[in-house]
Amino acid sequence: MNTFETDSRYVAHTYNRFPLEYVSGKGSLIEGSDGKQYIDLGSGIAVNCFGLNDEPWKAAVTEQLGKFQHCSNLYYAAPVAQLAQMLCQRTGMERVFFANSGAEANECAIKVARKWAAEHKGPEYYNIVTLHKSFHGRTLATLAATGQEKYHKDYRPLPEGFLYAEVGDKAGLEELVTQNKCAAILFECVQGEGGVMPIGQDFADTLREVAGKHDLLLMCDEVQLGNGRSGQLYGYMNYGLQPDVVTTAKGLGGGLPIGAAILGKRVADVLQPGDHGSTFGGNPVSCAGGVNILSRLDETLLAGVRERSSYIVEALRGAKGITAVNGMGLMLGLEIQKPAREFAELALQKGVLVTIAKDNIRLLPALNIPMDLLQQAVTVLKECAAE
Ligand SMILES: Cc1ncc(COP(=O)(O)O)c(C=O)c1O
């Protein structure tokens, strides 16, 4: 059996895979087992922020691998402390809990919100407000936090204590937090799985105002948009917010599993020894990769993200078959006239990898994708939309 057949036979059928087997890659170019080369506009869903086989990241990770790969959270490891320090210094926050994924980072945020509220407001203040069309993960609590019925329907009963507000509906949000005893608001600045939809400056201001007025924690899910992709280090920085909790994952590790819940002043000491934990969370190899990634997300790199974003938006907005281009930085969504799966399969046949979010095409290229490759890929996207 070849890889396609073995995988179909033995791997659980939770993914609707495209017919491409990775063999190797360099930067934004992928070699498939079919002998063809592909331009990657997906980055393994916003993970490989400096592309594949990236030399500085590989050097950082292999240096740590040559020392020790894991030591458990019973002991100290320099890359873990260093990454936490960098995250705090660059966000103005206080402490970091390391996990292995975005869902786990959000689980930590949910626990922090519940414990903080129980201690400061009373145990009945356990509700967390999230937004319709949000996505926060696949564990049962983060599924419950996700404001999309299609993810809930087969898994009831879900953990209670999640309420959903509509993006843009200030009155509805006010009503929800007035009529229910709430701990926090959890939100994404750009709803990725919800179709790549920014919540907008006005609603970001509303979230800050309502959280302030009702003594709620503001918790920003930066799992997909964070780590440079928005054109700022974290997406909330584009909206001038200062959340109490920031969760991130994906791009932070540059390709190895990591998750982080970054805790601000109000919640810095909520978690005490024994309150939460993880065997693999804060793996030193992942953290060494994270230190390398974060040290390279400087103003020059971020300016490059904004420049590439403007190029894509200008090239595709108004193109035949594309009805809208939404998003922020290098997390962009194309509203298209043909079914998204058909578009993505056509793009693959023409040598370009894209992802899908709801009915839209989602572009998540490497933050340093070379302009000439981006131009080639954009030409292919235009052809796919117009055909
Ligand atoms: C905004 C957001 N939050 C959470 C998650 C879950 O992350 P993970 O798949 O690493 O658990 C995702 C994954 O796509 C995401 O986009």
The description of the largest β-sheet is: 7 strands, mixed
Number of strands: 17
Number of separate structural domains = 2
In the CATH hierarchy, what is the superfamily of the largest domain?
Answer: Type I PLP-dependent aspartate aminotransferase-like (Major domain)
| Overall radius of gyration | 21 Å
Low-confidence stretches: none
Number of helices: 13
Q: Cofactors and ligands present?
A: pyridoxal-5'-phosphate
Helix % is 25-40%
- How much of the sequence lies in strands comes to 15-25%
CATH architecture descriptor name of the largest domain: 3-Layer(aba) Sandwich
Shape: globular
Structural class: alpha/beta
Order of helices and strands: HEEEHHHEHEHHEHEEEHEEEHHEEHEEEH
Order of strands in the sheet with most strands: 4-12-11-10-7-5-6
- What's the rounded overall pLDDT mean? 98
CATH topology of the largest domain: Aspartate Aminotransferase, domain 2
N-to-C span: 35 Å
The CATH class assignment of the largest domain is Alpha Beta
Q: What's the gist of this structure?
A:
With 387 residues, this protein is an alpha/beta fold. It is 38% helix and 19% strand. The protein starts with a helix and ends with a helix.
Describe what you observe in this structure.
The chain is an alpha/beta fold and 387 residues long. The chain has helices at 3-10, 43-46, 55-65, 78-91, 102-120, 140-145, 149-152, 170-179, 201-213, 284-296, 299-316, 340-349, 371-386; strands at 22-26, 29-32, 37-40, 95-99, 127-131, 162-165, 182-187, 190-191, 197-198, 217-221, 245-248, 259-263, 322-328, 331-336, 352-353, 355-357, 360-363. The chain folds into 2 domains: 3-54 and 299-386, Aspartate Aminotransferase, domain 1, CATH 3.90.1150; 57-296, Type I PLP-dependent aspartate aminotransferase-like (Major domain) (Aspartate Aminotransferase, domain 2, 3-Layer(aba) Sandwich). The strands form 4 sheets. It has a 7-stranded mixed β-sheet with strand order 4-12-11-10-7-5-6, with helices on both faces. A 4-stranded mixed β-sheet has the order 1-2-3-15. A 4-stranded antiparallel β-sheet has the order 13-14-17-16. α11 (299-316) packs parallel to α13 (371-386). The site of pyridoxal-5'-phosphate has 14 residues, from α5.
